[in-house]
Amino acid sequence: MALVPASLDLRITPIVRKHIESFITSTGRPDAVATLMVDVDGKWSIGAYYQENIDGLRPLYQEKGWPLLYACDGLTLAIPQYQVLSTLRGRTLDRTTDGYVVR
């Protein structure tokens, strides 16, 4: 069963969109989905989940009733840290010389 992305009001700047699309293409995996995560220091990062990652997380997320995939401004992102959603809603994901920022 395919996961249907939940809608999330997170805008993606053109520079971030280009970087994510380029990064996902560079994985060479047609099943790659960009991930958005934040570390304990508040630094945001982009990574990739593959189908086996998504399949491994699916049971827990379904049990908890949490979405894993989100449709954000025309991109699908896996956001495994459910607790950060309130930080992202209504905001913009951008990139500076210091990395990714949520404004």
Structural class determined from secondary elements: alpha/beta
Number of domains: 1
Strand content: 25-35%
Report the span from N to C terminus: 35 Å
Task: State the helix count.
Answer: 3
Looking at the structure, what is the overall shape?
globular
Per CATH, what is the topology? Answer: Hypothetical Protein Aq_1857, Chain: A
Number of strands: 8
Spatial order of strands in the largest sheet? 1-5-6-3-4
Mean pLDDT: 94
For the record, the CATH architecture stands as Sandwich
Q: How is the main sheet built?
A: 5 strands, mixed
Gyration radius (Cα, Å) is 13 Å
CATH secondary-structure class: Mainly Beta
- Unreliable segments (pLDDT under 50, ≥5 consecutive)? none
Summarize the helix and strand pattern as letters: EEHEEHEEHEE
> What percentage of residues falls in helices of 4 or more residues?
25-40%
